[in-house]
Amino acid sequence: MASLVNCFVALSIISLLALPSNAQLSATFYANTCPNLQTIVRNAMSQAVNGESRIGASILRLFFHDCFVNGCDASILLDDTASFTGEKNAAPNRNSARGFQVIDTIKTRVEAACNGTVSCADILALAARDGVVLLGGPSWTVPLGRRDARTASQSAANSQIPSPASSLSTLISMFSAKGLNARDMTALSGGHTIGQARCTTFRARIYNDTNIDRNFATNRRANCPASGGDANLAPLDIQTPIRFDNNYYGNLVAQRGLLHSDQELFNGGSQDALVRTYSSNNAAFSNDFAAAMVRMGNISPLTGRNGEIRRNCRMVN
């Protein structure tokens, strides 16, 4: 009997030791090990956004593109090497993903304060939140405790990140595959209230789509010719391009969505009513966006003994 009890105790201890590998994220994860983390990230993001307002949108996009490829694990930050192919040169990221130097700066400051403690994945999650807040958007509590991937997947980046040409059904399906519903998708698309897009991503929209305001299309064509000028930029929200608000949805109602995938949210489909709600109720949008960001940040994080804490966000240890 005693041996059975001892066996049970031993198994219980083993089970408890195994728990961290499936640990849940927690807002207080670094409360004792790096108490100044959030201040360090906020100050660095404030400096970056003050230097270039667009960087808030760029960091938000980095976080989205990271989470949609094998979870929020900072895989997008890994550089290619002679023996390693990362995600930076996948089609959705090549010549458009930016803000890596800002994450490098934050990581350097965090390492100086809390050596080998905070993951690049958590830094990216906090920086995305702070970029939104600094541009006038909502705040939210960021659950922490992610660890960094030791690998990346260019093929997954090519196939799992929605294209600017996506239909509504494709958008709903791709978000659903990540555990996000149609409301989450429509709210998260509101991140396009800030930032800019390259001509190559919206050329087909302004020349071929019929559900577009004529004057809007004409104005956009002036800086996006039918051929050439692929890298020319246009604001995703023509009204308040550097302020995080609900004008993006008003633009959709007026058929002034810049990307085909944007206008799909308001095109006689299932999301029309929600787009109208967001267009007239900024609080509703802000609340749903914040909640959806938390849910997106919970996509397949590495925790416990999985992954690692990178010393340099661009390379594995």
TrEMBL record:
Disulfide bonds join C34-C114, C67-C72, C120-C313, C199-C224. Keywords: Calcium, Disulfide bond, Glycoprotein, Heme, Hydrogen peroxide, Iron, Metal-binding, Oxidoreductase, Peroxidase, Secreted, Signal. Ca(2+) 1 binds at D66, V69, G71, D73, S75, E87. Its cofactor is heme b; Ca(2+). Ca(2+) 2 binds at T193, D237, T240, D245. One of its GO terms (molecular function) is heme binding. InterPro entries: Haem_peroxidase (IPR002016), Haem_peroxidase_sf (IPR010255), Peroxidase_pln (IPR000823), Peroxidases_AS (IPR019794), Peroxidases_heam-ligand_BS (IPR019793), Secretory_peroxidase (IPR033905). Residues 1-23 form the signal peptide. The record marks R61 as: Transition state stabilizer. The lineage of its organism: Eukaryota, Viridiplantae, Streptophyta, Embryophyta, Tracheophyta. The active site is at H65. It is found in: Secreted. The keyword Disulfide bond applies. Heme b binds at H192. One of its GO terms (biological process) is hydrogen peroxide catabolic process. Binds 1 heme b (iron(II)-protoporphyrin IX) group per subunit. Binds 2 calcium ions per subunit. Residues 24-317 form the Plant heme peroxidase family profile domain. It comes from Nyssa sinensis. The keyword tRNA processing does not apply. Belongs to the peroxidase family. Classical plant (class III) peroxidase subfamily. Belongs to the peroxidase family. Ascorbate peroxidase subfamily. It comes from the Eukaryota. This is Peroxidase. Substrate binds at P162. Removal of H(2)O(2), oxidation of toxic reductants, biosynthesis and degradation of lignin, suberization, auxin catabolism, response to environmental stresses such as wounding, pathogen attack and oxidative stress. GO terms for cellular component: extracellular region. It holds the Pfam family peroxidase. Its EC number is 1.11.1.7.
